[in-house]
Design goal:
Elements: H1 3-24, H2 27-31, H3 39-58, H4 61-85, H5 90-116, H6 121-130, H7 142-157, H8 161-165
Helix pairs in contact: 1-3, 1-4, 3-4, 3-5, 3-7, 4-5, 5-6, 6-7
């Protein structure tokens, strides 16, 4: 791969990852849907949005493989840096990142199954096991988060792959009917 093409892919992946982190940090997830506002809860929301984005990119794998890999690499480089900033020792960081990557792959599979299933029960169950795993039963709104994921998956499916390959992505609002910010305009072509 030519270095200019590699730089373009890395720049696009950085924009995509930055947007998904911004979306994952929306206070409504924590305040309205009861996602734990903890390092684990924040990781779960980043993983959820990364799973949705990577799911969309997989539809056109041959064109998007390098971008998908660059987003994945950025996500785990960010996780590595965050663990170090939280004071996790150098020797433990590698083990924690490996466990996080395994957890992420498990979430990808569970969310794919949940999104393919009719209704929200299967997806809500997967979210309950992952996002709400440290909450007492009944705390948190796994069904509301499942509905959001389903809307977000549809929103991402409607976005042209060419825009995503440039790093232009617009995430849907948390609640249906709210205005969606146009972040694609932030990155003119």
């Amino acid at each position: 791969m030519a270095s200019a093409q590699k730089r373009q892919i890395e720049a696009a992946a950085t924009r995509l990852y930055t947007r998904l982190v911004e979306q994952a940090r929306q206070p409504a997830f924590y305040l309205e849907l009861g996602v734990p506002d903890t390092p684990d809860g924040r990781f779960d929301m980043i993983a959820l949005h990364a799973a949705l984005l990577l799911r969309r990119l997989r539809r056109e794998r041959e064109r998007t493989e390098a971008t998908s890999q660059a987003v994945f690499d950025l996500m785990f480089a960010d996780m590595d840096q965050n663990l170090r900033e939280m004071g996790v020792g150098d020797l433990a960081v590698g083990k924690r990142i490996k466990a996080m990557a395994q957890g992420f792959y498990g979430r990808l599979a569970a969310y794919d199954v949940g999104l393919a299933a009719p209704g929200d029960d299967v997806l809500a169950d997967a979210l309950g096991r992952n996002v709400y795993r440290h909450r007492p039963p009944g705390e948190g709104d796994a069904t509301g988060l499942a509905r959001y994921m389903r809307r977000q998956a549809g929103n991402l499916e409607a976005q042209p792959v060419e825009a995503l390959m440039r790093g232009d992505v617009a995430f849907a609002a948390l609640t249906a009917g709210e205005e969606v910010p146009d972040h694609a305009a932030d990155h003119p072509t």
